[in-house]
Specification:
The structure holds two protein chains of two kinds.
Chain A lengths: L1 H7 L6 H33 L4 H6 L9 H10 L1 H4 L4 H32 L5 H11 L4 H15 L6 H4 L6 H14 L3 H8 L4 H12 L1 H17 L2 H6 L10 H9 L7 H31 L6
Helix pairs in contact in A: 4-16, 6-10, 6-13, 7-10, 13-16, 15-16
Chain B lengths: L3 H8 L3 H30 L12 H8 L6 H38 L8 H13 L2 H11 L9 H6 L1 E3 L4 E3 L7 H29 L3 H9 L4 H29 L3 H5 L14 H9 L7 H25 L3 H23 L6
Antiparallel strand pairs in B: 1-2
Helix pairs in contact in B: 2-13, 3-4, 3-13, 4-8, 4-10, 5-8, 8-10, 10-13, 12-13
The chains are: A mainly alpha, B mainly alpha.
Chain lengths: 298, 344
């Protein structure tokens, strides 16, 4: 023992103490980061309840009492109503987002099922193609996309905003990996013996078994589609008010000089992110787990 | 014992169902992704208005400013857009990776035991899911630089002149580097949580016995980081770098919306994606040819980066093993020759 002492020196007495110290310092740093993360959103919500002149003159961390008036202004004032109508925005955004999400998860599950369960000639090639497609960013194809849609006369319709959701390579990849680990092929065979048709096997056996994967991907598809500003802005060329999505309306508020009521602007922004924030607060556990699995980075 | 029914089922070919199941995906993929991509290439070889074939003229105009009177401007704008994209990307990536790497290391450190890791993860990921368009408008409001009614940040930082009752505001929107700084901040703010979670799952994938052995040997946290975490994490770090670069090349929402003049994107923030968008989305005079050519250039850059990502994330050990096996086989062959073809 004395030999070891000579070689390695005195044991460090303050080892745990210094670690504790470090933990506390880091905790402080993380609290600061938390504040930075939340502060802009907090100010957004607080300012939505304050009066315009108060917002312009001072910063406050306490909610004001002007929420009712801001709501009145945003919902009833004609100037605001022609640029930002929250009901039309919610209707359009929920319509596009809803269809995109259902299309994405259903058809991705179907494609993954087709590749996983059946043996056919182009099976491996088709899977490689799907993996390659994951790399091509939307911005690269958008010029050709718009030109093609113009030719077909599909601009200013919702078809190009919902139908492409059927082909979501990243989601297919995810579903295939999930099936590999938790969907035994014996089940399909058992269903066949019982006289179940192929499509019915998929709908009433495979889909219920894949619920966890479908749920995670549905959350991500919903968020991505709701937040999408680029594609609707590009396809809805004549930007008819009736067709605009909520993010488009939120950006239109900025593009006009008519709006000087800061309270109403902050309220409009709050309403545009509200559904996403509610979903996040309710499902954050699944979302974080999904991100950790990777493959969801835009 | 296979029953008669089971044997009959085995004999049926189910291949056609496979095709039926994957058909919708590939149909939609062809119409909405593959054909638009090909169409972009076609557009890049066509004249802006007439659509006639012009060969590489659009590329020459964009890259070398050869062509009509406006060619110089088109080319200059493209390179400035490319420069802006790189500046904005570098400016958001460096703080982002520093922040997320250090946080990931601290959160996964078994010795530190920071309380509330789950809560911090949730909070730090939150900015990532909020609509980027709304975030851009929110920051425009917060960074408002009007002298009589400044935004929240200028209210905090700027001095008020008592005589004129006006604020000496910092030009967060019209200033060149100030506005770039704000966009970099927004991008970092939105993405560091995402990168952090990815890196955390990477660190958790490292064999924990390595960390244990290091701590028994008395390694400091700095040594553990430099000698264990960093080398073993490097494929994931490289992957993060390249995917972030590809993402950075597509940066659109925030630079497109963060400007004061209602109808004009700030020149200091115009990225390649915004440049392309403005050409094909022009209501009066759309320039499909330029948009197509710029898209193809962007595509090629993305492709190169994608190949690098693929190269960096390949299984190095597997390749090394393969090489070794080949070498062994060769040696064996030679030995066999030496012994006159007799196997020993």
């Amino acid at each position: 023992m004395s030999n070891m002492k000579a070689t390695y020196g005195e044991p460090k007495d303050n080892y745990t103490a210094s670690l504790k110290m470090k933990s506390y310092i880091l905790l402080g740093w993380m609290i600061i980061l938390t504040i930075i993360c939340l502060l802009p959103i907090y100010i957004l919500i607080v300012n939505a309840t304050r009066e315009s002149t108060a917002i312009a003159n001072s910063l406050s961390f306490l909610p004001g009492g002007n929420l009712g008036k801001n709501i009145d202004k945003l919902f009833k004032d004609v100037n605001y109503n022609t640029v930002y109508n929250v009901w039309i925005g919610y209707r359009n955004s929920f319509f596009i987002t809803g269809f995109s999400t259902v299309f994405t998860v259903f058809f991705s599950a179907m494609t993954a099922y087709g590749i996983h369960v059946y043996d056919f000639k182009i099976k491996e090639i088709s899977y490689t193609v799907i993996l390659l497609v994951m790399m091509v960013p939307m911005q690269v194809t958008s010029a050709g996309f718009v030109a093609f849609m113009l030719k077909l006369g599909l601009t200013d319709t919702y078809w190009p905003l919902t139908l492409p959701a059927i082909a979501a390579p990243a989601v297919v990849y995810f579903m295939r990996s999930y099936m590999k680990s938790s969907f035994p092929l014996d089940i399909v065979e058992a269903a066949r013996i019982d006289g179940c048709t192929e499509f019915r096997t998929f709908v009433s056996i495979a889909i219920p078994m894949m619920k966890p994967a479908i749920a995670v991907q549905a959350i991500f598809a919903f968020i991505a589609s709701w937040n999408n500003f680029y594609t609707p802005n590009m396809i809805l060329i004549s930007s008819k008010f009736d067709q605009k999505t909520l993010p488009m309306m939120a950006s239109a508020i900025q593009a006009s000089d008519k709006f000087t009521d800061y309270g109403a602007i902050y309220l409009a922004l709050t309403l545009s992110i509200l559904p996403i924030v509610i979903i996040y607060v309710a499902l954050s556990r699944f979302i974080i787990a999904g991100v950790a699995l990777g493959g969801v980075k835009e | 014992m296979a029953s008669a029914a089971q044997r009959r089922i085995k004999a049926i070919s189910y291949a056609k169902y496979g095709y039926m199941f994957i058909a919708p995906f590939f149909l939609v993929y062809f119409f909405f992704q593959l054909w638009p991509l090909i169409n972009t290439f076609i557009l890049s070889f066509q004249a802006n208005k007439t659509g006639e074939f012009v060969g590489f003229d659009n590329y020459k105009t964009i890259l070398f400013a050869i062509g009509n009177r406006t060619a110089k401007n088109v080319s200059k704008n493209f390179f400035s857009a490319f420069g802006n994209t790189i500046i904005l990307w570098v400016g958001n990536f460096i703080p982002q990776i520093a922040l997320s790497l250090s946080l990931a290391v601290w959160f996964t450190d078994a010795n530190l035991k920071i309380p509330g890791t789950g809560f911090f993860k949730v909070v730090m990921y939150l900015p990532n899911i909020i609509t980027a368009a709304s975030v851009a408008v929110l920051f425009l409001q917060l960074c408002g630089e009007a002298e009589n009614a400044p935004g929240a940040i200028n209210l905090l930082l700027a001095k008020k002149d008592d005589a004129s009752q006006k604020y000496d505001t910092i030009k967060f929107i019209t200033g060149v580097w100030q506005s770039r700084g704000v966009v970099m901040f927004i991008q970092t703010w939105m993405w560091f949580g995402n990168t952090m979670i990815m890196l955390m799952s990477g660190i958790q994938g490292i064999n924990p016995s390595l960390f244990e052995a290091a701590s028994i040997d008395g390694a400091t946290s700095g040594q553990v980081f430099r000698k264990i975490t960093l080398p073993l994490l490097s494929p994931i770090l490289a992957y993060t770098l390249v995917t972030s670069m590809i993402g950075g090349l597509q940066m659109f929402d925030i630079p497109y919306l963060y400007h004061k003049d209602p109808n004009k994107v700030s020149d200091n923030l115009k990225t390649v994606a915004v440049y392309i968008y403005e050409y094909f989305h022009d209501q009066v005079d759309p320039k499909m040819g330029y948009a197509g050519a710029a898209s193809v250039i962007l595509f090629i850059v993305t492709l190169i980066l994608g190949c690098i990502a693929f190269y960096l994330t390949r299984d190095v050990d597997e390749i090394a093993k393969k090489k070794q096996r080949k070498k062994l086989a060769k040696q064996l062959k030679q030995q066999n020759k030496q012994f006159g073809g007799l196997s020993i």
